[in-house]
Design brief:
It contains eight helices and ten strands. With 281 residues, it is an alpha/beta fold. The longest helix has 20 residues. The structure holds iron/sulfur cluster. The site of iron/sulfur cluster (SF4) has 9 residues, from helix 5.
């Protein structure tokens, strides 16, 4: 049976989610950050992680954003095909939620209208919205405000099939080494393997929204996630890029079928405020 949802409900949800994601770290990120603070061996690295813990505490207590870069709002909408929307355009309703969230939450407005002319839109819209149809009558909304210190360090490689797993590993390690301190480590690394040029970039972005405490259900991918995390943490970049054992908190990899002639790999790097919040309506 068709379920009707008024788009105003989506606006209210997105508004709250933008504010919450920018003030509180998600439980999975909180868990790995605490663990990193305990396990870091470098004195300076530990000091930085302790300062980041203090920053998170102050942000939550005083309702101050966890980082001054409150990001561009990236929104994944997984919509059950039995949903019918009423009350206007869904995309407009999502952008209205972002507008209200960034205004009422006093979040920095970081979006420019045109990539070359660069006039600020002054309300952090438009959001980058990805729609996906699913079965059923539920909507899963994921809001992931993305800072650009780390976004700018992201890479895409169109490898040859013969490059194989070693090629994938080298691509990820190259991206992380090149990012160094610019991505505000400790980082979270989202990796997309397969699909087409644009599909693997989207997989990498989506990988960042997966719980960082979970691994892939595919055996070789899980191993790759573990191996890469170990190798990245042997690079010595460390918290804040000042040296140490914890350069990355997690490597999340998503895969998709691809063409016989290619092996696309995208690496979307995120910082220690890897913001993501999920709501199911
Ligand atoms: S990369 Fe992350 S931590 Fe660094 S300034 Fe941007 S949002 Fe903040």
């Amino acid at each position: 049976m068709l379920r009707t949802i008024n788009v105003s409900e989506i606006t209210d949800s997105i508004k709250e989610m933008c504010i919450k994601a920018n003030h509180f770290l998600s439980p999975d990120m909180d868990e790995v950050m605490k663990k990193a603070t305990e396990t870091e061996e470098s004195v300076v690295g530990k000091q930085i992680l302790c300062q980041l813990q203090e920053n998170l505490q102050i942000a939550g207590d005083q309702m101050i954003p966890i980082c001054q870069d409150t990001g561009m709002a990236v929104i994944f909408m997984e919509i059950g095909q039995e949903i019918h929307f009423e009350g206007g355009s869904l995309s407009d309703a999502i952008n209205e939620g972002v507008r209200r969230g960034y205004e009422e939450g006093y979040l920095r407005k970081s979006v420019v209208k045109d990539p070359i002319e660069r006039e600020n839109t002054k309300d952090n819209t438009p959001a980058v919205i990805h729609y996906e149809m699913t079965e059923g009558d539920k909507i899963k909304i994921t809001v992931a405000p993305k800072g650009f210190g780390s976004e700018n360090m992201s890479r895409i490689f169109m490898l040859k099939p013969s490059d194989g797993l070693e090629g994938v590993k080298n691509s990820v390690l190259t991206a992380v080494k090149d990012a160094g301190p610019n991505a505000c480590p400790p980082m979270v690394i989202g990796v997309g393997i397969g699909g087409t040029f644009e599909k693997c970039a989207l997989l990498a972005k989506k990988a960042l929204t997966r719980e960082v405490t979970e691994h892939s259900s595919i055996g070789y991918v899980r191993e790759l996630e573990e191996d890469l995390l170990k190798e990245i943490n042997e690079l010595g970049i460390g918290p804040g890029g000042l040296g140490g054992k914890i350069t990355a908190l997690a490597v999340n990899i998503e895969t998709f079928p691809t063409h016989i002639a290619g092996l696309p790999v995208a690496i979307n790097i995120c910082c220690h405020v890897n913001r993501h919040i999920v709501k199911v309506i």
